[in-house]
Amino acid sequence: xxxxxxxxxxxxxxxxxxxxxxxxxxxxxxxxxxxxxxxxxxxxxxxxxxxxxxxxxxxxxxxxxxxxxxxxxxxxxxxxxxxxxxxxxxxxxxxxxxxxxxxxxxxxxxxxxxxxxxxxxxxxxxxxxxxxxxxxxxxxxxxxxxxxxxxxxxxxxxxxxxxxxxxxxxxxxxxxxxxxxxxxxxxxxxxxxxxxxxxxxxxxxxxxxxxxxxxxxxxxxxxxxxxxxxxxxxxxxxxxxxxxxxxxxxxxxxxxxxxxxxxxxxxxxxxxxxxxxxxxxxxxxxxxxxxxxxxxxxxxxxxxxxxxxxxxxxxxxxxxxxxxxxxxxxxxxxxxxxxxxxxxxxxxxxxxxxxxxxxxxxxxxxxxxxxxxxxxxxxxxxxxxxxxxxxxxxxxxxxxxxxxxxxxxxxxxxxxxxxxxxxxxxxxxxxxxxxxxxxxxxxxxxxxxxxxxxxxxxxxxxxxxxxxxxxxxxxxxxxxxxxxxxxxxxxxxxxxxxxxxxxxxxxxxxxxxxxxxxxxxxxxxxxxxxxxxxxxxxxxxxxxxxxxxxxxxxxxxxxxxxxxxxxxxxxxxxxxxxxxxxxxxxxxxxxxxxxxxxxxxxxxxxxxxxxxxxxxxxxxxxxxxxxxxxxxxxxxxxxxxxxxxxxxxxxxxxxxxxxxxxxxxxxxxxxxxxxxxxxxxxxxxxxxxxxxxxxxxxxxxxxxxxxxxxxxxxxxxxxxxxxxxxxxxxxxxxxxxxxxxxxxxxxxxxxxxxxxxxxxxxxxxxxxxxxxxxxxxxxxxxxxxxxxxxxxxxxxxxxxxxxxxxxxxxxxxxxxxxxxxxxxxxxxxxxxxxxxxxxxxxxxxxxxxxxxxxxxxxxxxxxxxxxxxxxxxxxxxxxxxxxxxxxxxxxxxxxxxxxxxxxxxxxxxxxxxxxxxxxxxxxxxxxxxxxxxxxxx
Length: 937
Description:
The protein has 937 residues and is an alpha+beta fold. The strands form eleven sheets. Strands 12, 13, 14, 15, 16, 17 and 18 form a seven-stranded mixed β-sheet that branches. Strands 27, 28, 29, 30, 31 and 32 form a six-stranded mixed β-sheet that branches. It has a four-stranded parallel β-sheet with strand order 2-1-25-26, covered by helices on one side. Helix 3 crosses helix 4 (96-113). The two termini are 58 Å apart.
């Protein structure tokens, strides 16, 4: 019977949509299971075949759990704010909302075509005002919260105000920007502005001057993970370090909890390692050094206070505020030039560049509080303002980076840890030796010396032991248009939140999407974007009088804001009264399975954990962590094609002749190749782009053969394969099976369209099991033991594979089972009906059709998954190979119930072995039970 995949897939996709087959109920006595894919950004290019890999895996698992009787939440939505739509708006004038809507429609069309079992009724878009109303609400809650270190959680700012009213800062243990000291009386007598200024020092969402990654071409601040090699990931524009007033999120308050929480999660170890490194916990001491000739102090954090006698110079971060104060007139020009050069590097680049040594001398000296020796103070880009105090005491004998710096600038290298190695040539970084040249620390081990020196530091009042974290507070403002407006207005220069009743604060219309002539963000172009405090509404900007009508915040939220809590909104997507009802958050709890790319390790996955912990602290939800199990899917790689242009000409030489010329390899669209070969269609190439219209070709055997290389699948490399084309030719079920068949989910693997024919052939074989010629024919006759064995072998394998996410081996098992059933001409209902259920998570369309043809009225989706019966896997007979002196002579079939001794006796008594023995007595008989018999004569 002809397998018409196009007709079948259209039919069942319409059925699922019409019957809302995958709509999830919140009212059920079934156990829950929450399966989620990382939020996709709807790009203009649409999906290529690499994108659905993780979605197919999560869809198989969601369908499997439904078969197991779970109430499965498997939603979909779009992280729809983002720079690409805004850049397109700047170039064309088209509103980002229009571009985004078009992109989403394209994505949705493609996703539906692949047959995903999403609950489309819960679809979210972060750029919808009904969604970002609650992103703004969470921001307001963060603004009105502080972190109490004594209770180790976030609390309402009202409890902090109460503490100030009763005790001032006495006994306060808070996460803060600066350590403040005042009495209850001083608090009570302070003005409203002063009180607001003090509270900003403690709020979890706060405004402060911060060093940021500023991209002038994009007109916005970028996160570290949006920059590559000192340029913006989007567009490749230069990025500079700049100080600006910015909104920040106090994620640093959660550093220890974020570290400890990792122990409870079933996540890939490399991902956990990335987060641990990013958070960067270290224990040591904070020590103060006087600056010679200045009334200033340099405070450093060091993990090796035991080496303080070996500190021979100091290094400050170029952006440290002290630099301006302590730099001498003679050194001013050199220092300023160095600061300018450093501003062109991102923090991530500075952290990763360990080989290049650079710096500038400030002209000033610090005094070592223990040796009393003068230490020259330098600046260098390897010291970061965001880690520790923005200053380090350099111990070149025992730190590799300090050693390279000392050698470059000819600075003293003093050994203070015992070693036979020459520290003038290389640093010795061990913690297993003892202290030398260190006065009262001499002879002590690392742990002893560290404890003693911290005690001495504290007794002298020049510092204290402390734990430090590399993780900085997260910058929360972007100077762009297409993002969530920040629900803040300014009164007397102080930020105030809008009332909840005024939410959402919607994005205003603007004439242009670039910053204003005054350098304000694009929202500064809005004509209606001011806050009327009396009438509690947004009014025209020209009405601002700073008495009752005030300016609104012009920055928007970063791209990660909406994706930091979307998993909670899916639980209750249409609620007008709350971001999620408490009882629904309790029912759905954590995401049980989260699948997405490893690139989100230190961005989205940290921010969403932080917001989740905060919402738990404030008792809006009850679970600490958002994602219990996480899998990073690998990439599907493209097979790029290259042509070879002879330098300085418009001649293109075929691959195997290119070695004879000086050429440049140029990517060419894989759609310009002939069929599935490597041969270029030269006429199509000439028509592809105007600059190739008069191309000349040097051929081999009358053909132009392209170079091929496996690379990341991307539009810029012209190696993208559109899933729509695959669905049209091989079907969505073919695409789904093939993507799983390519290899283990976590690994990257190359795409090869030719490989689809094998999977498509399997689908046709599977389809024809249910037909006799053109007639659907399934027998109600009881299956044989052999038929049941094929089925239950498959059940056992597939259950194991799905539960261990080994989807590729399941597809192989399907092929083996169908081949075996075809060989024994099985058409029994009791085999073919459960077979359709087993394969349906992978290939739902064909299985729905077969299920329907079998006479079932309901969807296959909720049919119970077949249960394994091990009895069918027990062998009745075992075929034993019999070897004599290690060479196999014959095989003998014996009952599987026989013991090893009984097998031995029957083999020896057999006519064949008697002929071989010729009356001799065997020296040794070895029986490997149910496997093999070996006789030594």
